[in-house]
Amino acid sequence: MKTSFFHTRRGLLLAAVLTACGVNASAAEPIKVALIEGLSGPFANAGEAVARNIVWAMERVNARGGVKLPGGARPLELMRMDSKGSTEEALSLLKSATDQSVAVVMQGNSSAAAAALIDALNKHNQREPQRRALLLNYSAVDPVLTNEKCSPWHFRFDAHADMRLAALTDVLKDDAGTQRVYLIGQDYSFGQHVLREGRKMIAAKRPDIEFVGDELHPIGRVKDFLPYATKIKASGAQAVLTGNWGNDLTLLIKAAREVGFEGKFYTFYGNALGVPAAIGEAGIGRVLAVAEWHPNAGGKGSDALVSAFRKRFPKPEDDYLHVRMQVMVEMLAQAIERGRSAEAGAIVKALSGARYDGASLGGLGAGVMRAADHQYIQPLYVSVMQRAGSDGVPFDAEGSGFGFKTLRYVDAARAEQPHRCQMPAL
């Protein structure tokens, strides 16, 4: 019979650790955190990858004694809630979580779902102030979520789409060999935004570039991307810009390889979830990604974190580590301790404007949760696919033999962008 992440042996180990740190594990009520994510369906691999990151982050907090509160330290406990990739199911699970008085919800793999959850939380918290809850967002990057739809109950730990686009298009601006660009994305709020704003940014920075395609496709429903790849190749495009994620990106890049497309891919998420293996040799020097960090970012703390994660999750298919998810859990623990309460309102007050120095992650992830819009401000890396073992690429991705090398580092001040949030009162 399969066991969960928190199997019996780990539970006993956690109890021993907590007891050694002066915590009565049997008496300490856990602080429950609900992960509402697609853990089955077309993006199950992305959902499970997130779960591994959050579980590992919580394990580290618990191993050092849990979250310290006036009544005694308490461990963090993750509640896995499978939305199956459905916004309606996500809303139903949110109600289930708040009915159980869960104060912290995490979600990210859909900006549409995040928008719905934020709206539902705003209404719930006004209706039931005794059972308020907040949303910690690790990857729903539609900028509207911290602009027009900003909420005191929502915090985003990922750089939003315009921040990522600005970094990618700065690199594209300097790519003199690229004259023709194809835009393709998933047909929902985030994908639409990436194509619309990507076109604007490229046109402003490189007015000489010709757009030879601009196409949206159904999210999570396309099984065969060969027709799309054939059009991309026929267009004469020298580069593709896409915000696709999960299998929609992996299958697109795999199809591009199969039709012999030799252009570049400027992506948000091209460094994980099967993409390097799908494109193989053809991706060297041609697949770019942008993120808050990547495994070959370098430095003692970075290398140590990668090695520790791979020791915890040794299977190549489980190799998906993101610093932002580690930062999210660390800052949650610190906010609870600073606010001396696991109640949602106290966490919000402690987290808004909070700074993280990266100390608990070996110097990684330092930034600030901007109080004005609850957008985490942090550096960004643009990286490019190379063969593992080459200069600057000590780690490969998912056992593929290919990894990513830093192409450009964008410090937090440059990555930061203005906002249009008018934050409602708590």
From TrEMBL:
Signal peptide interval:
1-27
Residue ranges of every copy of the Leucine-binding protein domain listed in the record: 30-386
Membership in a protein family: Belongs to the leucine-binding protein family.
Q: What is this protein called?
A: Putative transporter signal peptide protein
Q: Which UniProt keywords apply?
A: Signal
Q: Name one Pfam family in it.
A: Peripla_BP_6
- The lineage's top-level taxon is Bacteria
Organism the protein comes from: Leptothrix cholodnii (strain ATCC 51168 / LMG 8142 / SP-6) (Leptothrix discophora (strain SP-6))
Transmembrane domains' residue ranges: none
